[in-house]
């Protein structure tokens, strides 16, 4: 049997198009060919189950081998195999119709996504690395004859009699000079570990050395010997393919360690399992991230029928859950022909919504089941929840139940509980409920104590996402505003009708202002003399809430670059009712007035952690002189 012919595409432009656009990463060839071998193996298993194949299945592993001297890579399976007619049907016609129109449409394509997803061209990824490809195959069908197909990457092929004696297919790649990097054991092992680690059929790649028991020695202790065994690179039944009822916590933790060997144990996990209106399985883990907002976005792996596809899952997983770890497997996610890019599809949106709902339901369940344990984990999961509240409306609706606010006393409240707690005391004269918050408890302690003296409560908002979460609360919570506890003196943060009057005369206030402006000698500090409680600090340095918030958002890349470029400006509030101000006014020498004013100002800077370097040294020296 011998036949020569032309692959029926009616043009010679198809291969350059495939080579140029179809696969941006050449290592994909091994994934595609191994996946095809697995498909053929699963089909023969299915035929056997249906009674349509009565032969012995035997060893059904897929084997990958290479020969550095011959410059070949071979992928062998014991699956369905093909007849010569099937080769002509499935290989030569490249599994699509209208080839001429295809070539005409895409010959000038500049974007692989124009081609992706149109046709089943996985086999032809072989030509990314091979100058010649051979297929040596024998069909499972009774009486079938072995067949061999060869092609050098042009449109010319040859079919002749093969020499395979057993059911299945060998794909032999004669590697081109540009791709000899793949003729390396560790390079191939790495690709197989990446793409085939959980395929449902055993994948053999050479051998490895293992230690096995070899009886006991004279002392009755076990002896060991080294033996060569098949190197099976995959686990054929990963936990996401099993029922949650058949799994224990140890199974989930063990799988997590397999995926992320260097990570701490996760907080908890969600087992995904749905078959309508789409098929989806997987396990998502909540890792311990605390306040680390550096997005490690490549931690969720996407599979299709246990074949690794990508770790770029931003279309499938909501943005706020990109810090999760784990696996998602779905045959219903539309992929391009190289299985590397997601396409726009209603299923993707449905899956996205499903995952959002599952995560929200899990968090609500944990909160209701054991609130104390949930509160203990809040430092780790708060980042996920707050980001979800900000970015996903559907999640925010459910999130009201389990989003927590924490105060400086370490107490936790739901959004409703907290408003009920502070509403009576922290409502200002404009009927706005004011939430006070701190971003650094240690640094802002003086301001927290000042608020506590009035029995005001102060929240802790110290995560990287809190600046945006604060704005979210102000939008969603009716008649509510949030102010950082050091954004102004406490009387101005929550203004009441019964404010303290400034006991200084207008002339005295002007003199005090002049003294401080000369002592500070910096236009970045705007001096104001105010009537405050005599128990408050004589001088307070603050940045206006709005300006500080805009600057912080600019630092996080929040589109506020204009504010980020503006110089820092601060308000210096002089407490006209404090005894020190009276002492400054009574000081006869201008030098003494300036020294006291500068000392009071430096104390205010020190309270904000803003006194450093030479200014701090001068402050210490001046303090010694004044004692």
From TrEMBL:
- UniProt name for this protein: Chaperone protein HtpG
Question: Record keywords: DNA damage included?
Answer: no
| Residue numbers spanned by region C | 556-627
Binding partners and assembly: Homodimer.
Q: Which UniProt keywords apply?
A: ATP-binding, Chaperone, Cytoplasm, Nucleotide-binding, Stress response
Renumbered residue ranges of the record's region B: 340-555
Per the record, what is one GO cellular component? cytoplasm
Q: Which Gene3D superfamilies would you find in this protein's record?
A: 3.30.230.80, 3.40.50.11260, Heat shock protein 90, C-terminal domain, Histidine kinase-like ATPase, C-terminal domain
Naturally occurring in which organism (per UniProt): Cecembia lonarensis (strain CCUG 58316 / KCTC 22772 / LW9)
* Region (A), start-end ranges: 1-339
The terms under GO molecular function for this entry are: ATP binding; ATP hydrolysis activity; ATP-dependent protein folding chaperone; unfolded protein binding
